[in-house]
Design a protein that fits this description.
The chain is of the alpha+beta class. 24% of the residues lie in helices and 27% in strands. The protein has helices at residues 126-129, 138-143, 148-163, 168-184, 201-211, 249-254, 257-260, and strands spanning 8-12, 25-31, 47-53, 63-64, 76-77, 90-101, 104-110, 117-123, 192-196, 220-223, 228-231, 236-241, 261-263. It starts with 7 loop residues before the first strand and ends with a strand. The structure holds zinc ion. Zinc ion (ZN) binds at residues 163, 165, 167, 169-170, 202.
């Protein structure tokens, strides 16, 4: 009744879904010869939406617990999850198109395992697809019971998606956001930010990226205070960031909080 044809396949170093990190890995999409003409014009885009097919997914359940993330989570409906388990197991991944080489699309990251069929590719548009004020409960749901390193990886992904560079400063922003969410017992999407006027702009981008605080939504303000203040209606914390200009992002993510900033 509906005729869906694969237009290519994924080449990935990851061959088992249990080994795929939540943030995905670099991959290549090999587009079949008969569809290569359809890539014309795509080479000038930096990001694409990849629609794939989870060919091994269980299509029957409508309520699932994303076991791979954490078996302690409450069950949720499949349409409120990004799990492969769904009646039509289509995947949707927005990813950086690093390079187009004939039929090969080099992308980073992609969470589809080696050999997965790809059924469509569309250009990603920041103007159309990035609805910055969206408030999802999905990210807070999946990070419940998650190990600190995994939560930091998720926060780092969000900071990078906003900032566009995997620099040490956005790794610090992920560490601060994690620390503040714990201290305030708050969802990072609800925190308010007061930044010093001379704040490192990369750090500021990272904090905005994870919190979605903007001047327009009144959750982002600037002051003469040298500290970063983060607060909710009931609690407040302040941080003074140390100089980390000689570090890289992965190193920062592994450093302890008290090596990166002091709590005021
Ligand atoms: Zn940067």
């Amino acid at each position: 009744m509906y005729d869906l044809r694969a237009i290519g396949t994924v080449q990935s170093a990851v061959t088992q879904s249990r080994d795929m990190p939540l943030q995905g890995v670099p991959a290549v999409i090999n587009v079949f010869d008969e569809f290569v003409a359809g890539l014309t014009g795509l080479e000038s885009d930096t990001h694409i939406n990849v629609i794939g097919w989870f060919d091994k997914a269980d299509r029957a359940p409508l309520m699932v617990r994303p076991r791979k993330i954490n078996p302690q989570l409450e069950k949720r409906g499949v349409f409120s999850l990004r799990s492969p388990v769904r009646p039509n197991p289509l995947s949707l991944s927005a990813t950086h198109l690093v390079k187009v080489d004939g039929p090969l699309l080099y992308v980073e990251p992609l969470d589809l395992i080696d050999g997965s069929p790809v059924v469509d590719i569309k250009p990603y548009s920041a103007g159309w697809d990035a609805i910055f004020w969206a408030r999802d409960t999905h990210s807070a749901y999946i990070t419940q019971h998650m190990a600190e390193g995994d939560v930091l990886a998720e926060l780092f992904r969000e900071a990078f998606n906003f900032h566009g560079e995997k620099c040490a400063a956005i790794a610090v922003s992920a560490k601060i956001a994690y620390e503040a969410a714990q201290a305030l017992e708050a969802n990072v999407r609800d925190i308010r930010l007061q930044l010093p006027r001379n704040v490192n702009p990369h750090l500021a981008d990272g904090l905005v990226g994870v919190s979605k605080a903007t001047m327009g939504n009144a959750r982002l303000t600037f002051s003469e205070d040298p500290d970063i203040r983060i607060w909710t209606a009931t609690r407040s914390v302040s941080y003074r960031v140390f100089d980390i200009s000689d570090s890289d992002a992965q190193h920062v993510l592994r450093m302890s909080a008290d090596q990166l900033f002091s709590k005021q």
